[in-house]
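Appendix B.2, paired examples.
Example (i):
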Amino acid sequence: MQGVDVVVSAVQGGAEVIIDGQVNLLRAAEKAGVPRWIPSDFSLGIDRLDYGDNDFADLRKKAAEAYRSSTVAPTSVLIGAFLEVLNEPWYNWVDWESGTFSYWGDGDQPVDFSTYSDTAEWTAEVALDPSTAGRTVRVAGDVLTLKELHQAMERGSGRRLEARRLGSTDDLRAEIERRKAVATDTFEYLLLQYNWAMVSGKGKLDPLENHRYPGIKPTSAEEYFRQAMS
């Protein structure tokens, strides 16, 4: 790390990676005299979530406690939800084979979405922007309600998707607690926790700062699904 201006972390994993691993990386950066670093946050508004709302967000919040006393200034880049992840069958939002789009909540809460490639571009811009030292940067490729996302999926893919409402945000919270009570693994309820943070609005990014980097023209949800399903 000698002579490095910014360290960017893009790791994923459990506590041994997100907390221990990143703190070790931070200590190495301190010894090398690195002035700035970008931790692997890249998510919804984890700074607005409370401990207990999301198990993986809790890991990042705990790691952030160690950053505050560091000589290396952190910049957290928050981007909302990755469209690539939401399009995966295991996420249980869209089933292209059966032609369904399933969601919790009333469908009217705005949610932030971004692609991997746009996130990489924003991160590069943030790394080159020393004014972001010690603060959080919030950007998003698209902001849509789930009803609007459903329409964007249909327009982009050219396919019809039947919308299925699974229940209210309170119903979702109750389902999370039910699963947690009997879970043997975090992943048995983790995706529902991300769902809740989005559809409840608690994880909404505010304020968005896309205007800081006008050279980036992010991919809309409709365009993403046009490309992904072509």
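Example (ii):
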Amino acid sequence: MRIAPLFILVFLAQYPLAPAAQKPMEQFAIIADKDGYSNIRIDTGLGSKINDTLHNSHFIYCFEPKGRWISINYSTKKRDQLYGYVFHDRIKLISDYEKIPRISKDKYLFGKDSLKVEVTAQPFVRAHYRLTHSKENPGTIDAINGKQYWGTDGELPKTAYKSITITWGEREMVLPQSAIEDLFEPSLHNTAVNYDRKNDILYIHSENSDGAGAYDVIWKVEKGVYTERYIAYGF
């Protein structure tokens, strides 16, 4: 029995516990810095080169911590799928906001108080879409309706989003088709809803598809108005 404490000390010396800030990531977050912005670096450490500067509320996708730094994926208006590191206390995880629970076993309906969010899907009907096939590999789909799409790695999708409807009491809004029309193979069981009640911002997010076509998507509805979405993929 006297050996156990010594064993524990030796174990901790070789494998120190992670700081409290180091909880599993692989999820969406936003920049939340007291200065209003945060520097994104190409590696960990304050001496590392600054690659970008992101302002508060900018969407990022977090991976596992590296020390007290977080490895992230993010996009800007000019560039897509960028990577870097941000200090751990400069972000706010979306999952830390109030969780809106699922309230129906029969459909993907989330709600609390007067707020309700319903997410629905439908079969992919090929006749409703214009497919662009690869010239080098005719069996591969390069674009759908002339645009990049998410959910498969060139194969024909099987399902698509139908609608995302949000209600506040008697008031209702439906996300525009532009927010969902290029997203396929939705995994509705992976959908989650979080609410920043203080700022009246609703976040709806999901991990969709699997394998090479996997992607994560998050939509933002601020004060009852759909404002943006962010898609993280290719990891």
